[in-house]
């Protein structure tokens, strides 16, 4: 997030896109609702009707995968209405001419056709956003999990810069992370092409620094992406794998390929707190300590590094993640002998400039943590980014044109399938499905079908449906609802009994390598 979570409460306009915030990020949704209570205008871009859209001043119910045409259309209207922040553009950005040239070619009638959103609604949203003194954009996986995911994010950045809604408090572009420490994992180098702090592995100076600190030569070649590993297949390059706290047998697309890969590994080790679907493929399972049994830090979606302490000692033979990694590394010939998580945090601060001033002593007591960048121990942390300059100097406009979904509906597969989360469960249900209370509230996946489609196909509430894509099929009960538009269906991916990712496509964004989870073509019919 460029800005802080609490700043959302003071925004004049909030644009939420690709985010079912009230179910996936309820604490952030609470801030949005507080802002609305104070008079803020809420704009929601979502192909479905959700609790958040019920609160919205404008609901832009787009066709799945048409985010870029919609936002480009908004920017064209902002230019036409002379609402762009020309001073900000001149002083703080570059390449605006290229963006302007592309926007001037846009046919707004074509935008209406592609998105399915009435032009009057697009105009209303654009003007509300551009006229606000303090406007924030919040987005989530509905933006990134597309083949055009990177271009989607760049287009959001274009919209924010065009109106000057960055560099100051109560504005910004706020990605809402999908898990509680995914920001921290990325910060610490859990990406194939960077060391901690986003220092690139192919940068000689960075590599030499880490090689010297770790007393070993480091490979200059980036590692493999997630799907390069889990989809390598029976005869692929992967011979062994160690999976920690991840359940790709349910969470990856094209699950048949994941199962083929894991079944043919020479060795698979899994560390987790429960025997997950993935752990059942393992040769060795390491029982890991839960969050309540270990100390250290989490870095949340607003870049805030917070201290946690063990509430209880690890149960039985469970060990913390760092202990498991250190012991495996030592037995493989590279000794690791950290005395505590405090010592690990000191190494992070030494090698990672954005964490340079963050150590455990500054996070203890009644402190609420520090937000990076925090370059030294006298620095108070950074509530919002880009106050005086962007990391690269000036903000760079990157024009983006429409990239349609790879797999649109057709005669054989006439429906768009969209997937997401429900309020009561988390990711693949490894933890939440152990709760009787949560299972009582939501104990199975449901396929949301529009009443018009249900009537045409003679489907009734609760009918068991066969949903098939070009990759596989599942059976799932029907839920007849106006939450989805005609021609679209929706379900969640939490339930192992209904492995929806057997249906999803594994085509990836060419830059970020994120799969296109959010859009694929399916057919539905009543199960025999």
Rg of Cα set = 24 Å
Question: What fraction of residues sit in β-strands?
Answer: 15-25%
**Secondary-structure arrangement, i.e. CATH architecture of the largest domain:** 3-Layer(aba) Sandwich
Largest sheet: number of strands, sense, barrel closure: 6 strands, mixed, barrel
Helix content class: 25-40%
* Contiguous helical run count: 19
Label this structure with key terms.
single chain; 528 residues; alpha/beta; Dimethylsulfoxide Reductase, domain 2; Rossmann fold; Barwin-like endoglucanases; 3 domains; six-stranded mixed β-barrel; five-stranded parallel beta sheet; 19 helices; 21 strands; 30% helix; 17% strand; globular
Blueprint of the fold:
Layout: E1 13-17, H1 21-24, H2 26-37, E2 41-45, H3 51-55, E3 58-60, H4 67-80, H5 86-92, E4 93-94, H6 96-104, H7 108-115, H8 119-131, E5 135-139, H9 141-144, H10 149-162, E6 172-175, H11 182-187, E7 194-195, E8 199-200, H12 204-214, H13 226-230, E9 240-244, H14 248-251, H15 255-263, E10 267-272, E11 284-287, E12 296-299, E13 304-308, H16 321-331, H17 341-351, E14 370-371, E15 395-396, E16 415-420, H18 436-441, E17 447-449, H19 451-457, E18 464-468, E19 473-480, E20 488-492, E21 520-526
Parallel strand pairs: 1-2, 1-5, 2-3, 4-15, 5-6, 9-10, 10-11, 16-20, 17-19
Antiparallel strand pairs: 7-8, 12-13, 13-14, 16-21, 17-20, 18-19, 18-21
């Amino acid at each position: 997030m460029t800005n802080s979570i609490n700043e959302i409460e003071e925004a004049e306009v909030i644009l939420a896109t690709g985010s079912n915030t009230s179910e996936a990020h309820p604490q952030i949704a609470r801030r949005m609702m507080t802002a609305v209570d104070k008079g803020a205008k809420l704009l929601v871009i979502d192909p479905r009707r959700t609790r958040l859209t019920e609160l919205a001043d404008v609901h832009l119910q787009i066709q799945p995968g048409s985010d870029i045409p919609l936002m480009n259309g908004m920017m064209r209207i902002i230019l036409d209405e002379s609402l762009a922040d020309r001073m900000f553009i001149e002083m703080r950005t570059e390449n605006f001419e290229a963006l302007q040239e592309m926007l001037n070619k846009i046919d707004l009638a074509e935008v209406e056709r592609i998105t399915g959103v009435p032009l009057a609604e697009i105009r209303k949203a654009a003007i509300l956003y551009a006229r606000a003194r303090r406007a924030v954009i919040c987005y989530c996986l509905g933006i990134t999990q597309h083949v055009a995911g990177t271009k989607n994010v760049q287009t959001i950045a274009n919209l924010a810069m065009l109106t000057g809604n960055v560099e100051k408090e109560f504005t910004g572009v706020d990605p809402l992370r999908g898990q509680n420490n995914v920001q921290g994992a990325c910060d610490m180098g859990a990406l194939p092409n960077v060391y901690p702090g986003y220092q690139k592995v192919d940068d000689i100076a960075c590599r030499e620094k880490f090689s010297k600190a770790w007393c070993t030569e480091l490979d200059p070649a980036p590692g493999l992406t997630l799907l390069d590993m889990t989809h390598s297949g029976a005869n692929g390059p992967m011979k062994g794998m160690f999976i920690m706290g991840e359940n790709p047998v349910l969470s990856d697309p094209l699950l048949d390929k994941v199962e083929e890969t894991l079944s043919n590994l020479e060795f698979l080790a899994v560390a987790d707190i429960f025997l997950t679907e993935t752990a059942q493929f393992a040769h060795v399972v390491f029982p890991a300590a839960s969050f309540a049994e270990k100390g250290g830090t989490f870095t949340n979606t607003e870049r805030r590094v917070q201290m946690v302490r063990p509430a209880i000692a690890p149960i039985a033979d469970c060990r913390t993640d760092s202990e498991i990694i250190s012991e495996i590394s030592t037995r493989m010939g590279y000794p690791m002998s950290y005395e505590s998580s405090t010592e690990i945090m000191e190494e992070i601060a030494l090698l990672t400039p954005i964490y340079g001033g963050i150590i455990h002593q500054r996070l203890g007591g009644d402190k609420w943590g520090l937000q990076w960048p925090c370059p030294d121990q006298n620095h108070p942390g950074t509530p919002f980014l880009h106050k005086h300059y962007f990391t690269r100097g000036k903000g760079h406009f990157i024009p983006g044109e429409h990239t349609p979904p790879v797999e649109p509906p057709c005669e054989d597969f006439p429906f768009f399938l969209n997937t997401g989360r429900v309020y009561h469960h988390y990711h693949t249900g490894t933890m939440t499905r152990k709760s009787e209370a949560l299972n009582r509230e939501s104990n199975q996946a449901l396929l949301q079908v529009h009443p018009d489609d249900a009537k045409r196909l003679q489907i009734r509430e609760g009918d068991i449906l066969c949903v098939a894509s070009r990759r596989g099929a599942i059976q799932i009960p029907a839920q007849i609802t106006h939450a989805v538009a005609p021609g679209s269906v929706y379900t969640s991916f939490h339930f192992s009994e209904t492995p929806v990712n057997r249906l999803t496509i594994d085509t990836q964004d060419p830059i970020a390598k994120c799969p296109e989870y959010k859009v694929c073509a399916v057919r539905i019919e009543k199960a025999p």
